[in-house]
Amino acid sequence: MSVRISRAGGRVRVVVERDYRSAVGPLWRALTDADRTREWFPAEVAIDARPGAELEFTLPPEALRRYGLPESAARSTGRVTAADPPRLLAYTWGEEQLTWSLTRAGARWTRLRLEHETDEGAPGAGSPAGWLATLEALAAALAGRPWTRAEIFARADQLKQPR
After folding, report:
1. pTM of the complete model beyond 0.85
2. Where residue 77 sits, what CATH number does that domain have?
3. pLDDT tens string for the chain (163 positions)?
4. Which residue range(s) make up the domain with 17?
5. Sheet strands (E) in 46-109
């Protein structure tokens, strides 16, 4: 796994790469199928992997409390900006941009690359802990052990703690 953080022009970009013991197809379905995203992604979302498709995200109450967000922030929208199934999915989530790339990394492995770009002052900006926890939850979901959102947030809190 690798993590890189960069800052430019008031924006923060976090890039995380992680290898999964999975073929590309099952990992793509985990990224795009609403029943699968529910097992590891921190918000409710149904992905229509076609460029231009509109998305609606719903944060659980715990996320609102955790980040000090008002109830009006529970729902936000996005738009698919690029898609090349089963290799690339990019979309906005409010003012954020997420790009998911999948490549083979061996006979039984797939490398996932997540690029997350957001404003410097956004909640969690420049801290990869939330995405690291989310990608751990994705690994668990692929292994048939989905996490609850509470478990994802608790793991993110653990990862933020100094060692």
Report:
1. yes
2. 3.30.530.20
3. 899 999 999 999 999 999 999 999 999 999 999 999 999 999 999 899 999 999 999 999 988 988 888 999 999 999 999 999 999 999 999 999 999 999 999 889 999 999 999 998 887 776 799 999 999 999 999 999 999 999 999 999 899 877 6
4. 2-160
5. 54-58, 75-84, 88-93, 96-104
